[in-house]
Task: structure prediction
Amino acid sequence: MGGGKKKRQRQSAGIGLSFLLWFAFSMFALMVVVVFVVVQNSLVTMQYRERTRLYLEETGETMVSEIGGSHDLTALGWRLLDLANENGLTVHLFYEDGESVFTLAGVQQADFSDLAAYLREKRDEGALSNFLLSEADGVTVYAHAVEVEGRPAFLYLAAPTEMHYSMDAGLRWISLVTALAAVVLAFVVSGIVTPFITRPLTEVTARAKEMARGNYQINFRKDYYCAEIDELSEALEYARTEISRADVMQKELIANVSHDFKTPLTMIKAYASMIREISGENKQKRDAHAKVIIDECDRLTLLVSDLLDLSKLRAGLVKEERAGFDLSEEVRAVAERFSYLRETEGLAIEEEIADGLFVTADKDRIAQVLYNFIGNAVNYTGEDDKRIRIRLYVKGKYARFEVIDTGKGIPADEVDTIWDRYYRSGKTHKRPVSGTGLGLSIVKSILLQHDFPFGVISEEGKGSCFWVEFPIDAPAGQEKNKEEGE
Result:
């Protein structure tokens, strides 16, 4: 089993980024060198050939001018020979029957019959009107039809290209050696540079693996040379902080839920035992004990219900049913549910609720938000005056709902955490007077789904003000009157 797991890990590892970068850089350098060598050799060859042709043409034109303006064949012969020798060319001047135009002392004459016949044929076909360029057997040839003392003749120039071919071969060897050196250098340089590029990614990956194993004490922040890697490390650092925070919250949630389940279960068991052993025959005591059991069962039911609601809201499984309704009436109805505390707890509830404020939202969920806000204020209002204020008023395009208590307030460093599940001020879990401790977390999830602004204003020793703003709709009657007026 262990060997198979290791084999699967090796198979899924894939090719390393360092190797890919090294291979890519090396292949790129190789392609650049190859293209450079090919282009260089081609350009040199083309340039040499073009220069040779132009040189032959210019020299040929000069000789044609000399032929046209000369009346001394011997002097003309030496003049053409001097021009040819100066430029490293071979020159011949012969009549159309192959007979040489002049005989120079010390210069061996050749038979030009075959060449003259070929050129004569080209001239008759119109292909030799001015000159002919050809390349064959390592020689570049220039031929021109002229007249010498009224007789048709041909000027023949040839430039050997053996020197060019030998130079070209030498250039190829030099290019090949240079290419090999450049490729080897590219391999070495890319091998050195690639680890420098990939090292930050390797470090970030190693830290990410540590975080995946549950080590949230690592730090991703580090000054890297690459902006993208800096952004990646910042994102992973943020993810580490959030995951670490979520892990702590999860552990606290389990501990707190266990505590809130254990307490009522212990009481249910204890009072059930008391009914069986002590108060079974005493109706008054039995009813009192049974009421405690019922109350604790109701508390457990509420806790489970809130946990399910929170899970559904966080998972996006709750289907919203938005519709227009009178928010003013809804606030009054929810506040009325706490009126019994006036007689039982001596709570003073002050209401400042504007009339006729209509909004569009999920009415049941907004009622849950209002109830949890007011319930939270009831739990944490001052012990002396026991007073809360409920306000609903117009603020711009919004209907602003506020619940103000006179409790101890919230420390500044804990304001952002009060919306978490089982928020614990002072690091001590407090079992609320009513509710389950999940109310503000449920409120946050509902309002985020609706995209309604919300928050808290608090100062230690002066109480807290929880608020939410609802976009105002015009009442149906006003809309109808507006349409009729238009």
Summary: The radius of gyration is 51 Å.
